[in-house]
Write a structure and sequence with these properties.
This protein has 411 residues and is of the alpha/beta class. The protein has helices at 7-26, 45-63, 82-94, 106-119, 147-160, 175-190, 210-218, 231-243, 259-265, 286-299, 305-322, 331-336, 373-409; strands at residues 32-38, 71-77, 99-102, 123-125, 140-142, 167-172, 198-201, 224-228, 249-252, 273-276, 341-343, 346-348, 361-366, 369-372. Strand 13 (361-366) and strand 14 form a beta hairpin. Helix 3 packs parallel to helix 4 and helix 8 packs parallel to helix 9. The radius of gyration is 28 Å and the shape is globular. The protein starts with 6 loop residues before the first helix and ends with a helix. The model is unreliable at 1-28 (pLDDT under 50).
Length: 411
């Protein structure tokens, strides 16, 4: 015989279910907390501090969006020490962050990738550029193009656009400098240029060590010098090279492209060529101008390339969050779903290795500002063309007047 539930039992069961649904419905969604480990002090603070400012500005703006989910942001200082950074990232993951921002430099990225893998969490780098980093982990992504693209661009440009036939390399003995100078050499030589010598020096070298290195480089009578080092090293090299009287082309890397380094180099950096991702605070693009104005209003300074990447790296995490990154273990789904996201540093999309699909451009120092050299060259070519056309028009007018004058005198 089948037993029937009493009406009271049915009512109580229904009310319990309704109450449970109501309770679940009233529960707030789990806050999405992000973490960033940046070198705010130490040798790499020149990069970490502007990246931090860009991240914080973007986070504030994202929080103000009407449909923004509950979010949190924690920032730790790596002290420019890879091991300190790795430990700080481990603590942030243990505290439950959805995804991490880190690896401002290549050594820090190397150390942090191991931690990301141990915790099965995404690590998104704003600026680490060593070619081999993406191969180390499927949890690692970055929005800065690789050294292969940067060094390759400058090598090809130096030979084909600047028409340099020879260049000597001055490179610090660091993973970053070593990787990018090797790519430059290959690209420059493949484009028809010659490298008489690659001169490397210890990272601990002082200003007093540079004159001998530069004398050795200039003995080859090169048309150009390629400088591969972090910002302070490049500044010292530029000043020593100018003191030695070298008047050829000076080419260097994106690590130099910080407001502090440009200011420290001063007038001696005029004309120096730099490769970095496409970004200029003077760009008339509406999104870039809105970013520049907001950054200046908040911090009282013009944002450079590293601040712009800090801003974009936070925007990428938000885009990933709303596109499927509802938990730490599957946050990568939101990352890979990003297609042609428009950042202030250009369109952002990742390949299957976690590399961003960006190409750097060549800039040069003109009156203290980084100017797109490729666009400047095209403008110069266009001005020459217009001037030639004007001279040809004036010549035709003059010849016509001469003919008319001769015709009038024979009547």
């Amino acid at each position: 015989m089948t037993r029937m539930k009493s009406p009271v039992a049915i009512t109580l069961t229904a009310l319990t279910a309704i109450a449970l649904v109501a309770t679940l419905g009233c529960q707030e969604k789990e806050s999405a907390v992000f973490g960033a480990v940046l070198p705010l002090t130490g040798a790499s603070g020149i990069y970490g501090e502007p990246i931090k400012k860009g991240i914080e500005l973007a986070f504030e703006q994202l929080q103000q969006l009407p449909d923004a989910p509950e979010m949190g942001l924690e920032i730790a200082d790596s002290q420019s020490d890879p091991e300190v950074g790795a430990q700080a990232l481990a603590e942030l993951y243990q505290n439950g962050i959805r995804a991490g921002i880190g690896g401002v430099t290549t050594p820090e990225a190397h150390a942090m990738i191991k931690v990301a893998d141990e915790n099965y969490r995404v690590l998104l780098s704003p600026s680490a550029s060593s070619e081999g980093l993406p191969a180390l982990s499927r949890n690692f992504y970055r929005i800065w193009p690789s050294d292969t693209r940067e060094g390759g661009k400058m090598g090809q440009y130096a030979a084909q656009n600047l028409n340099l036939e020879s260049a000597v390399i001055l490179a610090a003995e660091t993973p970053y400098a070593s990787g990018i100078q090797q790519v430059f050499v290959e690209s420059f030589e493949n484009s028809g240029g010659a490298i008489p010598e690659v001169i490397t020096y210890p990272e601990s070298s002082t200003v007093d060590d540079l004159p001998a290195l530069i004398e050795r480089a200039l003995a080859h009578e090169p048309q150009g010098l390629f400088l591969a080092d972090y910002a302070d090293g490049v500044v010292s090299l530029i000043q020593a090279i100018r003191a030695a009287g070298f008047e050829g082309s000076l080419l260097t890397v994106s690590a130099f492209a910080t407001p502090q380094a440009l200011a420290a180099a001063g007038a001696e950096a005029e004309g120096v060529l730099v490769t970095h991702p496409q970004y200029s605070p003077d760009d008339e693009n509406e999104d870039i101008q809105a970013f520049v104005e907001a950054y200046q209003a908040k911090y009282g300074e013009v944002p450079g390339i590293y601040a712009a990447h800090g801003y974009d790296v936070m925007k990428v995490l938000y885009e990933a969050l709303i596109n499927g990154g509802e938990s730490g273990p599957n946050f990568w789904k939101g990352i890979v779903s990003i297609e042609e996201m428009q950042g202030v540093t250009g369109p952002i999309q990742f390949d299957d290795r976690g590399d961003v699909q960006k190409w750097p451009r060549v800039y040069f120092l003109k009156e203290g500002k980084l100017v797109d050299h490729e666009m400047w060259r095209q403008e110069q070519i266009e001005q020459i063309r217009k001037r030639r056309e004007e001279l040809e028009r004036q010549q035709r007018d003059l010849q016509r007047r001469i003919r008319n004058s001769g015709s009038g005198g024979s009547r």
